[in-house]
Amino acid sequence: MMNRCEVAQKAELVELWQDYVRAAQAGEPTERFWAEGSCDIVPQIFQGFYQNFNQELVDIQARDGVFRLLIDAKHISEKRAGATQGVYYIICAVATDDGYRLKSYFDTYKSTFEHIATEHIDFYGSGRPMSHEECMLSEKFLTAFEQQYGVKMAERLTYIYNPSVNMAMNNLGILKVYDGTSNGSAGALYVESIHTIFAGNTRHFHELVHAVMMPTAKSKLLLLHEGIATYAGTSSEKYNKGYVQKCAAWLKKHPIDFTTAEPLHLTHYKSNATVLYAVGAKLIEYTFKYMGAEGVRALFEQESYDDIFEYLGVPRKERTAFVYGLFGLYSKK
After folding, report:
1. Strands 121-125 and 114-117
2. Predicted local confidence at residue 263, as pLDDT
3. Alpha-carbon gap, residue 287 to 292, rounded angstroms
4. Which helix (H) or strand (E) holds 248?
5. Distance between CA atoms of 77 and 80, rounded to whole angstroms?
6. Tens digit of each residue's pLDDT (9 = 90 or more) over 192-242
């Protein structure tokens, strides 16, 4: 049974949470609700979080001088036949001179995670010890990539490691992602809005490329971003066998007309992501071979599918033959 003090504390926290949600839904500044140096991380992962998700404060738990607010955030997606979308997560609250303030789970418990700092990356690990040598492999890759392509990561990167992506997201206080699936031990995810990688190992070069290119490039085309991450962030053997050869075999059986607007993104990405990644990688490889790093940077100035081929000097009627030629194939279109 709670004493009067605990009842009063929890009532104050409920009011704090309700005021914060109302302000967030109205698009008002919310810094006043948060402890200094902390912010609401989880909503930055989901577009329109406070506008599109119903927020329910399920429980308040006290642990070691910290209050944990358990939040169930859901909405029903019409696009997914009524499937539940949302997250079940924790926001913390701590006492300050100005009363209780909210604090992200990661900021609250960050000091308990293993931490390895390199020149450009802060690695935070739990669940399994990290290797400084492996962390340095990521740092060295990042530096080499920046030098090779003449680009720079915009700001210091946070890299959260755990044996699986879902477990790494637990370090943000995310206990459950509705309608989500586990990415396994080799999986990884880069979230641009919080400039953070979640990964099952500390040397996921593909996501490191995203961390450099996504915040800085003018183009937001998935074809280019997955392309350069696949080409530059994958070993030669995996690139050739896992992407190029598989894509070539797939194209033989499933002819694509590349003269239409974004056929990969609209038609084939969900059914065969390898095709999107491999075609994008081949476009990057071709550009780097004939136009160098400057050409690749210019490619990332292109904002549409048509712009890419216009920049490469490929007429619309020749696009299909051009792409098939990158894979050593003759077009069937």
Report:
1. antiparallel
2. 67
3. 7
4. helix 245-253
5. 6
6. 888 999 888 889 999 999 999 999 999 999 899 999 999 999 998 989 988
Asked if residues 205 and 141 have their Cβ atoms less than 8 Å apart, the reply is yes
| Burial bucket for residue 110 (CB in 10 Å: 0-12, 13-18, 19+) | middle
Structure tokens at 232: 């530059």
Termini Cα distance of the chain = 74
User: Got the DSSP string for 175-240?
Assistant: EEEET-----TT-EEEEGGGTEEEESSS--HHHHHHHHHHHH-S---HHHHHHHHHHHSS-HHIII
Q: What is the DSSP letter of 26?
A: T
Over the stretch 65-107, which tens digit does the pLDDT of each residue have? 899 999 998 876 655 556 677 889 999 999 999 899 999 999 9
- Does this model's pTM top 0.90? My answer is no
d(CA 61, CA 40): 19
**Does residue 332 register a pLDDT over 60?**
no
How far out from the chain centre does Cα 49 lie?
16
